[in-house]
Amino acid sequence: TIWAVCRDYNHDGIQDIFTDQIGGISSTGANIPAGIQVYKGSRINGNLHFELLQNCLYYTSAGFTVNLLPNGLGVPQIIDVNHDGDLDVLTYDVYGSTIVYYENQTIEEGLPADSIKFALTSSCWGNIYTSGTYLQTTLNVSCKGGPDTPTGAGEQTQSDQARHTGATAWAVDEGGNNSVDVLVSGAHVSNMEWLHNVGN
Description:
This protein is an all-beta fold and 200 residues long. The chain is built from 1 helix and 17 strands. The chain has one helix at residues 158-163, and strands at 4-7, 16-21, 24-25, 31-32, 35-44, 47-54, 58-61, 64-67, 77-79, 88-92, 99-104, 118-122, 129-131, 136-138, 167-172, 181-186, 193-195. The chain has a 6-stranded mixed beta sheet with strand order 8-7-12-11-10-9, with no helix packed on it. Strands 1-2-5-6 form a 4-stranded antiparallel beta sheet, with no helix packed on it. A hairpin with a 6-residue loop joins strand 16 and strand 17 (193-195). It is globular, with a radius of gyration of 18 Å. It starts with a strand and ends in a 5-residue tail after the last strand.
């Protein structure tokens, strides 16, 4: 396990565990998808107990079901982005250049509280693009997704792409105004960037 985050996803007053799932082949020969595991918390005879709820989180996109794969650097943010009462996921894409927003559909579809179902809402949340060896974030870009430089983000050299191995964002509601601000950092850099959300 590289990371673990405690969140109460089903609002039962007991923390649940979200953690990384490293893909591979199990001892029985079964294929284990890479992504995010969820352990449901409960109390048995007064003692805290966890059981595997989902071996991997999935999302739907264009009619396909795909495993939700966070960037390998840092911790995906498991928070209620749209303030509808269920937990969503924000994580940099596999290239570490744009933030992907996976929206939890539990409330939207009237599913039971123990359900977890995601949809890919944005592959470029906040129109933020991060690139370069020295962690340079460009705002208000028209993102296309992938490793290419989007409109308005300036030039990115092949050297930048080879040396910049990813970025991570830590979500904070600074000021308590129900907007998601992010603190961004990256691999092989000594600086961070604070991105204050002034949108809706």
